[in-house]
Automatic annotation (TrEMBL):
Similarity section: Belongs to the dymeclin family.
GO CC terms in record: Golgi apparatus
Keywords: Lipoprotein, Myristate
Any one Gene Ontology BP term: Golgi organization
Pfam family, one: Dymeclin
Protein name: Dymeclin
InterPro entries: Dymeclin (IPR019142)
Length: 652
């Protein structure tokens, strides 16, 4: 294969792959490795090609799993890769200009092999495979061999945090960079940036993906891994000092959204005979790990599209989420989660706490912009939730932004297009709103932001509406969708909790938003009456027969009455705290006043109905005094005048 490009169909018969997976031990100093690693291959760009790649190489991987205990070729390959990465850091004295290419190719082969090894054995068995050498059987099971996994993990982390330094915008004063640029100028008319950027992008991507593959052990365990060997290496020893740098680099990879190079852009040509191997991304594992986070849910089409645009950003984000959710070690908390919980803005000059050695600074403005732009991705929504929930610095910054609509609108679109999203994406978006609405300043400010022409809202043309009113409309629509489709009690509860958080600061509600609030109450009222009637009929029918068990209508009634009470509390809170700011809500309340009649004497709602009943009675009286056949404008004028005249102490 060597320098020749290979097709997927040729891989099972490739002589170099057969030798790698064969019965003959290969020393790490064997010239074979130079031949094996001098390959070019067109990158698979879709899941179908990736599947073909896996199917074509599975026989090779299975053979290596079987014969590695006698040959130790996996360990030799890893040692070759480690030696190549050491050469990667040598300055201008290094004469081998192909070590970047070969280091990348070696890492890709390791990644593909690890994916198969991890899927077929326990961590203990995997660790044992790292100890096999050229002799038959494992070598001394101790420091030197056992450290090969740790050395590889540490090397991958170093690649991720140090490879970006090879980009031309940084460290251009180093002799190493000047030498590498000079070599590239002699070989590429496209310039240093494009040629070197492509290969360093590919190495960074492969390092991130290989770490994800290492962490994919969880996919093959039904229970949460609490004593993982890989986790222990990442949280202790040589990897630990890189914690904050790794988290920071992964965040910046997500922020930058660097586009992937075109297929074949990183391919080098070497003037030797031989063959190539393969190239691809282990995104199947990445998707699987995201499934772990979404508890089996299916990622959205938008997420897949974003991953194709910037695989390094997508894989970096996924790795960050996996690291942040690793189980705490028995003796220490998860350092990656600590880093995510405590990082600060670059403009924040306050001192770091000495109790957290993993704290760092990052540009919050760039992070905020990326979060706003990437919310179509499940992973980005999970990151936003995690930061708002766990990092008080980020939460304070977000709530202080004067352009909060840039973040809220994408979240509302997720809820609006609920049919196209998986349930876990919807839940994350809803809980983000719940976190935001816990802040009174947020609840006030969203009614001051006026939006024009919301094109994605199809139920009604909204030429001008406040962000607060739009939020109410979308949340109510989500409740109604849930009532007719999923019927998830907890989704109801979270939606109503967000509305309840906002209700005391409702301001100048759009007439359509006010109508939808009362319409939702009407829908709940009808459902309550229907279930009550079914319960009554069932009870009557059971008097003549003891054979069939009664449906549990009491439980259904309790759930509906709980939701109705929350709706009444939301309306009551608005009337009590901001009656004079919401004439449209009072108008809608009066227009549908008959809906509330049945709840005035209901024992579950009597207390909460007092204020609502008072408002209905007070404004109905004023409208009767004004005469019949009043226009909408005249009714609203009377309501505004009455809101000023109504003594506030009468509302409890």
């Amino acid at each position: 294969m060597g320098a020749n490009s290979s097709s997927i169909s040729e891989l099972p018969e490739n002589e170099y792959l057969q030798k790698l997976s064969g019965s003959e031990p290969i020393s790490e100093n064997d010239p074979f490795w130079n031949q094996l690693l001098s390959f070019s291959f067109t990158t698979p760009t879709n899941s179908a090609d990736l599947k073909l790649l896996e199917e074509a190489t599975i026989s090779v991987c299975k053979s290596l799993v079987e014969k590695n205990p006698r040959t130790g070729n996996l360990g030799s390959l890893i040692k070759v890769f480690l030696s190549r990465t050491k050469e990667l850091k040598i300055s201008a004295e290094c004469q081998n200009h192909l070590f970047i290419w070969q280091a990348h190719n070696a890492l890709f082969i390791i990644c593909c092999l690890l994916k198969v090894f991890i899927s077929r054995m326990s961590e203990e068995e995997l660790q044992l495979h790292f100890t096999y050498e050229e002799k038959a059987g494992p070598s001394s099971y101790g420091a030197e061999c056992e450290d090969l996994i740790e050395e590889l993990l540490c090397c991958l982390i170093q690649l991720i945090v140090e490879i970006p330094l090879l980009y031309p915008c940084q460290h251009t004063d180093s002799n190493w960079w000047k030498w590498l640029c000079s070599w590239y100028r002699g070989r590429y008319s496209g310039g240093v940036t494009s040629a070197l950027g492509d290969i360093t992008y590919s190495i960074s991507l492969e390092a991130v993906t290989t770490l994800i593959v290492f962490l994919s052990c969880q996919l093959f365990h039904k229970e949460i891994l609490r004593e993982s060997i890989i986790h222990r290496y990442l949280m202790h020893g040589r990897c630990l000092p890189y914690t904050s740098r790794l988290v920071k680099t992964l965040l910046y990879n997500f922020i930058r959204q660097e586009r992937s190079p075109p297929p074949g852009a990183h391919v080098f040509q070497q003037q030797t005979d031989g063959g190539g191997l393969l190239y691809g991304i282990a995104s199947g594992v990445a998707t699987g790990l995201w499934t772990v986070f979404t508890l089996g849910g299916v990622g959205s089409k938008a997420s897949a599209q974003l991953e194709q645009c910037s695989p390094l950003a997508s894989q970096s984000l996924l790795l960050l989420l996996v690291l942040a959710n690793l189980t705490d070690a028995p003796d220490t908390p998860n350092p990656y989660r600590q880093a995510i919980m405590s990082f600060k803005n670059t403009q924040d000059n306050t001192a770091f706490s000495s109790s957290n050695p993993h704290a760092f600074q990052i540009n919050f403005n760039s992070l905020y912009t990326a979060l706003c732009e990437q919310q179509k991705s499940d992973q980005a929504t999970l990151l936003l939730y995690m930061l708002l929930h766990q990092n008080s610095n980020v939460r304070t910054y977000v709530l202080a932004r004067t352009d909060i609509e840039n973040l809220v609108l994408p979240i509302l679109e997720i809820l609006y297009h609920v049919e196209e999203r998986n349930s876990h994406h919807v839940y994350m978006a809803l809980i983000i709103l719940l976190i935001l609405t816990e802040d009174d300043g947020f609840n006030r400010s969203i009614h001051e932001v006026v939006l024009k022409n919301i094109t994605w809202y199809a139920e009604r043309v909204l030429t001008e509406i406040s962000l607060g009113s739009l939020l109410i409309l979308v949340v109510i629509r989500t409740i109604q969708y849930n009532m007719t489709r999923t019927r998830d009690k907890y989704l109801h509860t979270n939606c109503l909790a967000a509305l309840a958080n906002m209700s005391a600061q409702f301001r100048s509600l759009h007439q359509y938003a006010a109508q939808r609030i009362i319409s939702l109450f009407s829908l709940l009222s009808k459902k309550h009456n229907k279930v009550l009637e079914q319960a009554t009929q069932s009870l009557r029918g059971s008097l003549g027969s003891n054979d069939s068990p009664l449906p549990d209508y009491a439980q259904d009634l309790n759930v509906i009455e709980e939701v109705i009470r929350m709706m009444l509390e939301i309306i009551n809170s608005c009337l009590t705290n901001s009656l004079h700011h919401n004439p449209n809500l009072v108008y809608a309340l009066l227009y549908k006043r008959d809906l509330f009649e049945q709840f005035r004497t209901h024992p579950s709602f009597q207390d909460i109905m007092q204020n609502i009943d008072l408002v209905i009675s007070f404004f109905s009286s004023r409208l009767e005094q004004a005469g019949a056949e009043l226009s909408v404008e005249r009714v609203l004028e009377i309501i505004k005048q009455g809101a000023v005249a109504l003594p506030k102490d009468r509302l409890r």
